[in-house]
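In response to the reviewer comment on reproducibility (Comment 2.3), we provide here a single inverse folding case reported in full, input and output, so that an independent group could reproduce the run without further information from us. The structure tokens appear first.
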């Protein structure tokens, strides 16, 4: 039985934007919980992960259905292929938001440590990169996508700054070692959110003009 490809593409676009909105909300809540030490909000992030997992499966099934029943070509094929990758990246971002929430809760049971300025800046930068990547997806904006790619270097620099902070903080305040490790875990999750947002931006470029830019990150250091 044939299906209407245009209708199916519209539906899968609606689904991926719904997923994007849910993931962005999770990251916003996780960062807000971290900065405000809001444990109730952190627990809300943890409980919201199931919704994202269900959405991921629904989108994957819809994309596979399109491949099986319509055999898309050219721009339509690029779009469905990119949606599959974006879907996976969004699910992984959701997992990282959950990690941030868990570590935020853990921090309440540790000897207190002031959140380093670099961590707060990193959280803001990662959140902005995700928001820009998702706006680029919604508007098929390649210029904004390229801006997201360039922003990733700043997050990497902040990550190195945090490792240097931890190297000094642990010997100086041994009682805060567990809290410092939680901060580093949060920073790694934020760095991954930035990387995965970059992946999404690169897939937007692929959707719009067919260029594969994943392996040409001249501005990036890793």
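Designed residues, in position order:
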């Amino acid at each position: 039985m044939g299906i209407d490809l245009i209708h199916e593409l519209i539906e899968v676009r609606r689904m991926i934007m719904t997923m994007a909105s849910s993931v962005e909300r999770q990251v916003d809540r996780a960062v807000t919980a971290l900065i405000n030490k809001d444990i109730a909000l952190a627990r809300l992030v943890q409980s919201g992960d199931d919704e994202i997992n269900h959405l991921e499966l629904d989108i994957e099934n819809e994309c596979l259905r399109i491949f099986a029943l319509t055999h898309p070509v050219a721009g339509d094929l690029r779009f469905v292929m990119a949606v599959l990758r974006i879907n996976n990246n969004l699910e992984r971002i959701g997992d990282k938001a959950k990690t941030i929430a868990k570590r935020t809760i853990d921090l309440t049971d540790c000897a207190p440590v002031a959140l380093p300025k670099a961590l707060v800046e990193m959280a803001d930068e990662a959140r902005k990169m995700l928001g820009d990547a998702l706006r680029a997806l919604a508007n098929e904006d390649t210029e904004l996508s390229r801006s997201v790619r360039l922003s990733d270097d700043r997050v990497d620099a902040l990550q190195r700054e945090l490792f240097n902070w931890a190297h000094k903080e642990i010997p100086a305040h041994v009682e805060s070692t567990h809290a410092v490790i939680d901060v580093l875990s949060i920073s790694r999750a934020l760095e991954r959110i930035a990387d995965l947002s970059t992946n999404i931006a690169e897939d937007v470029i692929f959707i719009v003009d067919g260029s594969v830019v994943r392996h040409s990150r001249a501005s990036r250091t890793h």
